[in-house]
């Protein structure tokens, strides 16, 4: 484990400037450049906003399921020199009214005052049980601050997209997709995604929510189950006993939101080529049928090799076995989507670029998760001057360098169960048919 002191030194080196000024940091990588997405070869690079503040990093580092992960992520991205190609966005502390857009009044009251409470009292223990603050979501020191800053970060990204100052906004400490209106769940204490999407609705009429975390995006799906203004699509591992257990193909939305929820249940051992084939086939069809004017990507990295249980005990890859660079591939694919659709549907008017809000999520091995999100960040910048680091390359020297040398990515040995019995072909056929049932309002 890395000491707080060493990570603090690295963050001092970040020298992040004030909000929405260009970040200043010297690139230290000497990796060979990978070509930019062909679809964007003729366009200028997108304006990318990057949410960061030192209070946010410190608060996110306390999350019991992801201790120090925020420091790993921001430090690696800084070490590569990516911040100087992005616009710095500061989290804005949300009001109670903004928190209540996604949660009940009572839940928000408890979350925002929990730091001052004496949890050992019987009354508070009962409230913790009522609001799901137990088991995998224990109360921790700094929880109220964490909740405010994580939501504030997602709101900062959403607002920058709403006011048009950026084309892409990234908030790696956000993406908490399991929390529901009244309860914390699955390491998620607050659903910043739901609150962020509601903010995006100030400008955008049809929002496509994509969730590539290995777990089903149940909290977001349930929040917009009745809404035709948000199309939720979750790619996840679906198996007996695997959390959260929801996300079967039969869940398609309700009322006016019928056919605006899509679930793509996948099996264990999934590898990158199959994953990308499924994502490209499904998302292209949604894009063509739904015509979204904004995309929110929950980019949980717990489907990466060895990242579900933190590496130890997951050598076989009990979940998925995705290469860390597949997250960069998904972002590059989203960048190129309008061009893809223009080529295939010449008669339609498609915007030059679809705004994208990119959020984090799961990922339980800090170094692996940081590698995934650093590669995705470079892909979001989409500039030939910014090479996308390969998954097995040495990382640039920085305070946490030794942690990467000790934790090389590995490929799980579990067989890919998705190839058996034509499962993927059947799944895709069923899924494409489901997408084509949606009604555009
Ligand atoms: Zn997850």
Automatic annotation (TrEMBL):
<dbReference type="GO" id="GO:0031507">
    <property type="term" value="P:heterochromatin formation"/>
</dbReference>
<keyword id="KW-0678">Repressor</keyword>
<keyword id="KW-0963">Cytoplasm</keyword>
<dbReference type="GO" id="GO:0005737">
    <property type="term" value="C:cytoplasm"/>
</dbReference>
<dbReference type="Pfam" id="PF00850">
    <property type="entry name" value="Hist_deacetyl"/>
</dbReference>
<feature type="domain" description="Histone deacetylase">
    <location>
        <begin position="66"/>
        <end position="378"/>
    </location>
</feature>
<dbReference type="InterPro" id="IPR000286">
    <property type="entry name" value="HDACs"/>
</dbReference>
<keyword id="KW-0804">Transcription</keyword>
<dbReference type="GO" id="GO:0005634">
    <property type="term" value="C:nucleus"/>
</dbReference>
<keyword id="KW-0479">Metal-binding</keyword>
<keyword id="KW-0158">Chromosome</keyword>
<dbReference type="InterPro" id="IPR023801">
    <property type="entry name" value="His_deacetylse_dom"/>
</dbReference>
<keyword id="KW-0805">Transcription regulation</keyword>
<keyword id="KW-0156">Chromatin regulator</keyword>
<dbReference type="InterPro" id="IPR003084">
    <property type="entry name" value="HDAC_I/II"/>
</dbReference>
<dbReference type="InterPro" id="IPR023696">
    <property type="entry name" value="Ureohydrolase_dom_sf"/>
</dbReference>
<dbReference type="GO" id="GO:0046872">
    <property type="term" value="F:metal ion binding"/>
</dbReference>
<protein>
    <recommendedName>
        <fullName>Histone deacetylase 8</fullName>
        <ecNumber>3.5.1.98</ecNumber>
    </recommendedName>
</protein>
<dbReference type="GO" id="GO:0005694">
    <property type="term" value="C:chromosome"/>
</dbReference>
<comment type="similarity">
    <text>Belongs to the histone deacetylase family. HD type 1 subfamily.</text>
</comment>
<keyword id="KW-0378">Hydrolase</keyword>
<dbReference type="GO" id="GO:0141221">
    <property type="term" value="F:histone deacetylase activity, hydrolytic mechanism"/>
</dbReference>
<dbReference type="InterPro" id="IPR037138">
    <property type="entry name" value="His_deacetylse_dom_sf"/>
</dbReference>
<keyword id="KW-0539">Nucleus</keyword>
């Amino acid at each position: 484990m890395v000491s707080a002191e060493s990570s603090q030194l690295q963050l001092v080196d970040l020298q992040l400037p004030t909000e929405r000024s260009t970040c200043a940091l010297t690139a230290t990588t000497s990796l060979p450049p990978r070509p930019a997405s062909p679809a964007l070869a003729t366009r200028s690079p997108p304006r990318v906003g990057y949410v960061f503040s030192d209070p946010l990093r410190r608060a996110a580092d306390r999350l019991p399921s992801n201790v120090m992960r925020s420091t790993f992520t921001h430090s690696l991205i800084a070490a590569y020199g990516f911040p100087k190609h992005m616009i710095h966005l500061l989290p804005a502390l949300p009001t109670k009214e903004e928190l209540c857009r996604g949660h009940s009044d009572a839940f928000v009251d408890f979350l925002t005052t929990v730091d001052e409470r004496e949890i050992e009292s019987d009354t508070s223990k009962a409230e913790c049980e009522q609001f799901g603050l137990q088991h995998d979501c224990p109360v921790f020191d700094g929880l109220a601050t964490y909740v405010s800053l994580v939501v504030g970060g997602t709101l900062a990204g959403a607002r920058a997209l709403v006011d048009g100052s950026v084309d892409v906004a990234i908030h790696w400490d956000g993406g908490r997709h399991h929390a529901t209106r009244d309860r914390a769940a699955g390491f998620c204490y607050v659903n910043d995604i739901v609150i962020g999407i509601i903010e995006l609705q100030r400008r955008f009429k049809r929002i496509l929510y994509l969730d590539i975390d290995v777990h089903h995006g149940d909290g977001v799906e349930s929040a917009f189950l009745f809404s035709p203004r948000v199309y939720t699509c979750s790619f996840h591992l679906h198996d007996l006993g695997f959390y959260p257990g929801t996300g079967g193909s039969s869940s398609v939305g309700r009322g006016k939101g019928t056919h605006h929820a899509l679930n793509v249940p996948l099996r264990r051992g999934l590898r990158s080529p199959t994953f990308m084939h499924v994502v490209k086939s499904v998302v292209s069809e949604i894009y063509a049928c739904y015509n979204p004017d904004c995309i929110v990507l929950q980019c949980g990295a717990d489907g990466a090799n060895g990242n579900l249980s933190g590496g130890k005990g997951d050598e076989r890859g009990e979940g998925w076995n995705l290469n860390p660079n597949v997250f960069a591939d998904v972002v590059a694919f989203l960048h190129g989507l309008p061009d893809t659709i223009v080529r295939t549907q010449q008669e339609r008017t498609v915007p030059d670029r679809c705004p994208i809000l990119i959020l984090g999520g799961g990922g339980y091995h800090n170094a692996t998760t940081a590698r995934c999100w650093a590669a995705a960040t470079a892909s979001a910048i989409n500039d030939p001057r910014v090479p996308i680091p390969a998954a097995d390359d040495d990382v640039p020297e920085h305070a946490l360098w030794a942690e990467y040398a000790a934790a090389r990515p590995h490929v799980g040995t579990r067989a890919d169960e998705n190839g058996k019995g034509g499962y993927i072909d059947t799944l895709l056929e069923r899924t494409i048919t489901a997408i084509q049932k949606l009604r555009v309002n």
